[in-house]
Amino acid sequence: MKIQSMHPSSRPREKALEYGIGSLSDRELLALFIRTGTQKKSALELADDVLSRCDELQRFSEMTLNDFCSIDGIKTAKGIELLAVMELSKRIVKPRIGSSVSIHEPQALVAWVNREVGYAEQENFLVIFLNNQNNLLGHEILFKGTVDHSVVHPRDIIREAVARNASRIILAHNHPGGTMVASYADKEVTEIMVRAGNLVGIEILDHIIVGQGAYISLKSQHPYLFEE
C-alpha cells in the first residue's frame, strides 16, 4: 500500500508531528530516511526489507553500500543516504568516549564497546588507552580475526600505548556468536598482555568480552590472570 493511501494518523511523517518522533517504530523512522518508494513498494515496505536484511537493526552498522544496493528498490543514491545516517549516528555516539571522560561508569563503557564491536561478524580486538587518572586517551581496533597469541601481538599494543603516553589499557573483543564464555585463547592472550605490560610499567585493567549486547569481565571472573 502506498503511504499516501494510508490514514493520515498512520503515515510516519504525520504520526511524528502528532505524537512526537519517539512514537515512531524502527520501520517508520527508516521510511522517513528512505523517503520515496518504487512502483511496486512503498517506503515502509522498503524499510521492512532493509530491517530484514540487517536483523532488525542489529547489523545495520555493518551494512555496506553493496549490501544496501542489493535490496530491490535501493539504488546508489538512496544507499549513500542510508550510509550517511549510519555514519552520523556513530559520530554522535563516539564523543561520549573522549579525553575528558573518566572510567567511573563501567556500564557506560561496556555499552560503548558493544556499540563499537559487539555486533561485528568477525572478532575485533579493541584496545582502550588511559592515563594514570583513568582518563581516556583514545581507542583503536588493532586486530581482526580469531583472538589468539598468533594474531594479537603484544608488541604492537605496547608500542601504541607508549606512543599515546598511556599508563593503563583495557582490552576488549567481541564473540560474534554472542557466547559469553572466555576461551583458553582469551585467557592466554590476557596473561601474555599482563606480563608484557608489567615489563614496561603499563597496567592491564581488564579484558572485556562483548557480544549481542551482553558482556563478561575477565578481571571479575578470572582475577588470577591479572596477578603479577
What descriptive keywords fit this protein?
Cytidine Deaminase, domain 2; alpha+beta; about 230 residues; elongated; 2 domains
Provide an overview of this structure.
The chain folds into two domains: 3-93; 101-226, Cytidine Deaminase, domain 2, CATH 3.40.140. 41% of the residues lie in helices and 16% in strands. The chain has helices spanning 12-19, 26-34, 43-53, 65-69, 76-93, 106-117, 154-163, 184-200, 218-221, and strands at 124-130, 136-144, 168-174, 203-211, 214-217. The chain has a five-stranded mixed beta sheet, sandwiched between helices.
Brief rundown of the structure:
Helices cover 41% and strands 16% of the residues. The protein is of the alpha+beta class. A hairpin with a 5-residue loop joins strand 1 and strand 2.
Placed side by side, the strands forming the largest sheet appear as 2-1-3-4-5
Query: What's the helix-strand series?
Result: HHHHHHEEHEHEEH
Principal-axis shape: elongated
Helicity range of the residues?
A: 40-55%
Mean pLDDT comes to 85
Q: In the CATH classification, which architecture of the largest domain applies?
A: 3-Layer(aba) Sandwich
